[in-house]
Amino acid sequence: MPVCSTMLRLTVLAVVLSCPIAAHCQTVMEEQVSEIVQDKEFVAPASENGPAPKSVLRVLPIPIVNPTVGSGLAVAGIYTFPSPGGRTGTPRSTLALVAGYADSKSYITGVGGTIHLSDDRFRISGLGGYARANLDYFGLTGVGISPGDSVALSGKGYILNLSGQMRLAPSVYAGVSVNLLNATITSDMPVAELGGSNLSYRHFGIGPVVKYDSRDNSWWPTKGVQLSIKDTFMTAHFDQTGNGGTTRKKFSNLEFKSSAYFALQNNLVIAGNVRASQASDGAPFFMQPSISVRGFPSGKYYEPFVLEGQAELRWFPMKRIGLVAFGGGGVIAAGLDGIDDGTSAFGYGAGVRYRLSEVDRMNIGMDIAFGGGGSAVYFRLGEAF
């Protein structure tokens, strides 16, 4: 999941799974923790067969095969338990811990979770992590670096995300999110976007978040819709070593996500996802959006605006064994009005799933994707969206 953005995104390795475990630094960290915990905000589903089951602890090894940081291994511990004061039908709360290492000498550690209170009237989510990442940076779709060339970046940093939400109406939640990021990045040669070859960066962000979630399950939905809008206002401090000292900037990131699920048969589901993100003027390159379509290296390019979509067919022909087929594409540009001149990316592939839990519909799986001139293998806990 990014060094600053990639670093932190690597450090936050969805990823992951929002548990499925869950900026270049923030982005890589978030994508990596999110990839493992899955951008589901650690929301575990309620039991559909009467009272929620007792607390369950699962410890899982998860291979890392990521085009951005290389190959390695992560270990995730996932603890699900009945929500405090919750009745039958209340989502189970989740806590997760993940640690991973890749052959690029990149590593991550992260912890996160979501607690549901008062019969899911309130949701409190958190994610914290530390990462060190080594990767190749290709520039802002070619700006500052010759097309096809790259610069080696090394970064380390920590991130902390907190969110509190209250139910305003059935399936509708609103609240506030806060995030902190502190990272350092170095390169093997001067990079225009860094202002040199060294950068120390920290920021504080706060903003509103609104969500609509009618899914019947957060790990393997068969019906429903999930919408989210988040606008984060950030104050950042840059220290470009040897290039004029500390600089203070303010910028914002606006992001919209939408996912929908339709059951064609009992164990056959079609799912779709759309994401749009816009960074304001003044946002550093590593805090700008990047394309996240499977098959295209996450964090390869950054621009202020990204629009992407994916579709996936999910089928469980046997009780424990499932198959998926997917495709997606996106475009990254200086803005919505510049899409025609933006850089596009496409990816497609297939995967296999194994159901760990019938009650939670929790799956582990492996996807192979093609796009961007190559192929990539993804191991995951939970689904891509």
SSE blueprint and pairings:
Layout: H1 5-11, H2 24-37, E1 56-66, E2 70-81, E3 93-102, E4 106-117, E5 122-137, E6 151-169, E7 172-191, E8 196-213, E9 224-240, E10 245-265, E11 268-279, E12 305-315, E13 321-333, E14 343-357, E15 362-371, E16 374-381
Antiparallel strand pairs: 1-2, 2-3, 3-4, 4-5, 5-6, 6-7, 7-8, 8-9, 9-10, 10-11, 11-12, 12-13, 13-14, 14-15, 15-16
Helix pairs in contact: 1-2
Counting DSSP E segments of at least 2 residues, the number of strands comes to 16
Could you name the CATH class? Mainly Beta
Main sheet record: 16 strands, antiparallel
Mean pLDDT over the full residue set: 78
Question: So what's the overall shape?
Answer: globular
Q: What are the segments in which pLDDT stays under 50 over at least 5 consecutive residues? A: 1-52, 141-146
Radius of gyration: 20 Å
Adjacency order of strands in the biggest sheet: 1-2-3-4-5-6-7-8-9-10-11-12-13-14-15-16
Count of domains: 1
Description:
- The protein has 385 residues and is mainly beta.
- Helix content is 5%, strand content 58%.
- The protein has one domain (5-381): Porin (Beta Barrel).
- The chain is built from 2 helices and 16 strands.
- Strand 12 (305-315) and strand 13 (321-333) form a beta hairpin.
- The two termini are 16 Å apart.
Give the tags.
disordered N terminus; 2 helices; 16-stranded antiparallel beta sheet; Porin; mainly beta; 385 residues
In brief:
The chain is mainly beta and 385 residues long. The chain has one domain (5-381): Porin (Beta Barrel).
